[in-house]
Each structure stands twice: as structure tokens, then as C-alpha cells.
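Risk register update: the risk of archive-format incompatibility is retired. Evidence:
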Amino acid sequence: MKFIKGKDRNQTEFFCLDQTIEQDNEVRLIDLFVGSLTLNDYGFKTEFIENGRPAYHPSDLLRLFIYGYLNRIRSSRHLERECKRNLEVMWLMCGLIPDHNTIANFRKNNSKSIRKVFRATVQLAKHFDLIGGKLIAGDSTKMRAQNSKKNNFNERKIERHLAYIDAKVEEYSAILAAEDGDNYKKQEAQNKIQKHLHQRAKYEQLQEELNQSGEVQISTSDPDSRQLITRNTITEVAYNIQTTVDAKHNIPIDFKVTNENDSKAMGRMVRRAKTILKKSDFTALYDKGYHTGTEFDYAHKQGVEVIVAFPGVASHAPDMTFDVEHFTYDKTLDEYTCPAGEKLTSNGSWYNKKSGKTINRVKHYKTKACKSCDFFERCTKNKAGRLIERSEHMDLIEANKKRLNEQMELYRKRQAIVEHPYGVIKRQWDFYYIMTKKTMKHAVADVGMIFTAYNLRRIFNLVSQNELKAHFKHIGRCFYTFKRQFAVIDALLSSKTGNYRLILQIS
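Archived output:
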């Protein structure tokens, strides 16, 4: 029986690396994309002192990272390995094999520059009309940090550890006092006491750091990470990634790495979206986690229409027909009418109400008719009578509720728009955790590369290769022409006998 036979391994052949990569291989698009970027303007360091071993050019390392993230490879050691065995990477890197430390340090030290590369992908999407700019959706996702729950502490957890240590020290001290002749047991008890006292000093140091910083928790491995609720009552030590996604092709136009919840994020993300889109006539969709009066005020001042899901009522009246939503407010008279027909009025004073770190101004509305009302027991448990608080931002909250009711079909698109990137990044690519360690700045570099890769994947899928190649080559030619003209002008101006007529012709 005949079988297909391979080549003779000992046969010498002429080998051209370029011939191994097909013309329609997307690795060529990565090469052209990076080649079209002016890395100096992005903050990448391209000038080094001629001393010692030459450095790797940032364009080569950027190409390597973009290829890696597009192919679900983030580890610097794995990227180093691919440089030795992957023909596509060999072609892309022209045979260079940087050390894994060099690869990791490039990502760690260029977080701001990587964010600018992400912005370049947004501009590229704009160029090919992939961003509508009429409807955007915002949301957040938690990405686990390189910090275990064991290495995250709050005041209660530290106090619990200290109480446990005190109990153990007392227990071993009692053993030490009871033992008269057994030196081995005495020595063992003393060692245990010393070990626990050493641990106590560590927890006391953490407690002091918490008190000095004013924070409610502290992480020892990644100091900027925080324990956040990921789903229902499940928590992780993580970062919270705020994202703004355009509705036309589900392309993220902005991201921000935070260690806080969503309640104070909407206003800033809307302002940033306005700057990126260079207009304010768009609609932004958010879920109920962003429903905060101060954020409505921020968005209103930006001139942007937002539609935010209305959260459920935090507390109900004994009879839900007497919930505050069934009280009618008259703006002209500045009074509420309850379901029983009584008027609740205000004294006109504003009161400060603290909610977390935020202080909101509220008015109080009440009536003397409560105590003689037949519906008192059904309306409130407060012996003094029903009290309604109205926030200074209530007009904006009610306007949002009206928009939500009128445009419910539009709002239902929110999840399909903003969850699309998360589905690809976390479920398809398995990027559910932060790769980099220590500080939010390093986390930004990792997240920036993730969203850069995601946007390029969307663009590569939506735009033909021929169009992309023509665009990148055009940018490259323009940049080369500009550099050549600038070099000629600089040389002529530096010359004492410069030909100024030629300078005017070139410029």
C-alpha cells in the first residue's frame, strides 16, 4: 500500500521567509498597521544612547503584542517562545527573539502610549465609517487582579485576625506556664508565640496603613485592586473596566480602568465620549447601576441625552399602593398629593444627605393630616407621619424616567451593543483577568492591548484587506514624503548658502 511521504529532513533547501506567509494572511495587516503609526508622537521611546547592546525598536515589540493578543497569547514567556517556533511571528519580527523580560517591560512601561494606539484603532474605524456616533452604550466588567482574596484586607478582617492571634497567644502562654520540666514543649510554645506575635505586627501595620490612607480596604499584591461584587453576592479582588461602545458595529470607542463601582462613572464617560465623537447630539444607554442624581446633572451639563434603567424601590410602604411613586408632585406649588388626597408641603429648606462619599441636597415634605388619616397604618411606620425626601436632581431623574418609558425599544438594544465586546474578550478569548501585576497603571496597559486587539479584529472582519492595505500604504507614503521634505528643509536652513526658493517650492 502506498502512503504520502514527506520531505527528507536532511535535504538542504533555499528558504525564503516571505514565501511562507500568504498574501492574504492578516499578519501582513498587523505589520502595515504598526508601520502606519508615528510612534514618536505616541510617546514610545525611539532614541537611545549609543552605549552597550542596541535596544529593540518599539514597533517590533508592538507588532509582537498585537499579534499575541489577536491570537489569545498574553504571556511574555509564551510570546518569546512563539518567536522561536511560529513562522508568522518569525516573519513579523524579521527573526528577532527578544527576551521575555524585555517583552514584559515594554508593556509595563508604555501604558499611555498603548492607550494612544487604541485611539488610533478608533480613528481607523472612523475613517472607514464603522462608527455611527448616534447611539452609544456604556457598561462595566470586572477583571480579576493578580491579588488573591487572602491578600486583601479590610478593618473587620484585620480585627478578626488580631482576635484569633490574641486567643492563640493566650493559649500557648497557658501551656508555657503549666509546663515545668519539659524543655521541648516550652521551646515549641515559645516559638509559636513568637510566630503569632510576628503575624500580629504585620496586621497592625496593615491597620495603620488603612487608617492613614482613609481607604476601606487594602491589597498587598496589587495595591490598587479592590474586592468588588462581580455577581449577586460573589466577590473578586478585581478592577472595574468602564467601556463605551458605539452601536453601529459594536466597536468600543473608550475604556477606563477603575477600582470603584458604577454609581459615579456615567458623567465622566459621557464627557469623554463627547470629546472622542466631537459632538453631543448622541444618546447614551446605561443600566440601573449608573442611576445617580449627580451623574444625571453632569450629563445634562454636557448636553448629552442619557437613558438609564430605573432601579427598583429600595423600601416599600406597608401597603405598596402608598409607595412614593403613587404620590403626585406639583412643580408650580412645590407640593405632593398623597393617594388619600392630602397635601405634603416643604418649609423650603435644603438638607444635606450623605450617600457614601457624596453629599446630596434634599427637601422634606410632610403634612399634619397624617395622624388623623384612616390610611396611616397602610402608609407609613413612622410615628411622626409620612416624610418624603425630594433630591435637587429629581427633575432630571423624572425626565430620564419619561425618556425610558417612551423609548423602551431603543433602550433594549443596550445589552446587545455593550455586551458584544465582553462576550468576545472574556468568553471567546478567555481574557477574564488582568495579566499585569502591581498598580492600575500596569493594568491599563493590559486592558489597552485587549481593546486594541478587539477593535482591529472588528476592522479586519468588516473591511476588505485590499482597502486596508491601500490605506496603510497611503499613510506610509505620506509620512515618508513629509519626513523627506522636512529633512531637506532642515538641511537647507542649516546651510549658510541655503536655496530659499527651493524651500518655498517644497513647502
